[in-house]
Amino acid sequence: xxxxxxxEPIYLDHNATTPVDPRVLEAMLPFFTEVFGNPSSVEHxxxxxxxxxxxxxxxxIAEALGARQNEIxxxxxxxxxxxxxxIGAARARPxxxxxxxxxxxxxxxxxxMRELEREGFEVTIVGVDQQGRVSPSDVAAAIRDxxxxxxxMGANNEVGTIQPIAEIGAVCxxxxxxxxxxxxxxxxxxxxxxxxxxxxxxxxxxxxxxxxKGVGAxxxxxxxxxxxxxxxxxxxxQERGLxxxxxxxxxxxxxxxxxxxxxxxxxxDDARLRGLCDKFVHEVTSxxxxxxxxxxPSERIAGNVSLSIxxxxxxxxxxxxxxxxxxxxxxxxxxxxxxxxPVLLAMFGDTPRARQAFRVSPGRFSTAExxxxxxxxxxxxxxxxxxxxx
Length: 390
Hints:
Aspartate Aminotransferase, domain 1; alpha/beta; 12 helices; seven-stranded mixed sheet; Aspartate Aminotransferase, domain 2
C-alpha cells in the first residue's frame, strides 16, 4: 500500500520522542518574548516573574512524582539528570565502590556507570528474563556491604516492559542502598509515588511526555533515607549547586505543563492506545506467520509494540515503508555494520529473534485510521520481502 505523493508519513515512533502538545506550546510561548527575565535575577520584577514561572513548574513536576517542591532539580535533559544522579551519588560515598544496574538500561545510565568503572568503582550488571523483566531477588542477591547505588529503569523504551521498581526499591531501602530509576518512559502514562515506591533518585524527560526537547528533571530524596549528591559540573550554583547554568524558563514551563496534562489524561490515553496496539498485533499475527511478540504481555507501557518477524530484516522493512510511516528498528546502524540492540541481546541472545526486532509506538494523536493504513502496508511489505527472498 503506497501513500499519496508528498503526504507526510504516519508518525509511529513516540517512544523515541513525542510531538509537543499544542497546550504545552501555548503555555511556553509567553516566556520566549513577554516574560524573558533571568530567574536568578530576583532583585527586579522581570527576574521575579521568570522565577515564579519556574517555581510553578517545579510544583507540577513534584506533583507528578509525589515529591516535595524542594526535591526537584531542573536539568537540560534526562541524560543530564542520570549523570548527576549516578555519578553524584557514587562520588558522595567513595568508601562504597560497588554499583548495580541492569542489562537493558539506556546509554544515559550505562555510560556514567562505565565512567565510574574507570574511576575504580565496580559495576554488577543484573540480567533479565525473556520478557525483559529484572527480578527483585536478583538485585537483592547482587547487593554487597559496599554497594552504594542501584539504577533500574522504570520501563524499557524498546520492548515496553515495566520493571517492578517498587519491589526493587524496597529491597534497596532495606539494605541501606540508594535506588535510582530512569522514569523517561513512565510519567506520560501515570503518576509515581516516590515514597511508596521506595525511589530515592529519579530522572525525568520532557520530550517523552509531549513536552519540549532539551529539558528534564531529577528527583533527589530529602527525607529519610536522604540521597546525598556531589556536583558533577560547576558554575553559578543554580539548583542547589547540582546543576549550574541559567535556567531555560520556556522549556521548564513546558515540562511542567506536559506532566500536568499527563497526570490528568494518562489513564484515558493509555486505554485508547492499548486498544490500538491490541488490534494491530491481532491483525498482524493473524495475517503473517512467524511473528513473535517481544516484552511482557501485560506489564508494559501502552503504545509500545515490539515484534520480530521470521525471515524479515527490520531495516529492510523500514526502508520499504519509509514513505508510509516512521517507526524504529531495534538495532543501531553505523557506517559499516548493523549492531543488534543490547536490550534484545539480553533477552534472547544473539538470535534471529533479537536481530529481527522492530518497534511500533503510536501516541496521543495517532488515529485508528492511521494504524489501519500502517497495518495493511506492513502486511503487504512483509509478503513482498518474503517473496523476493524465496
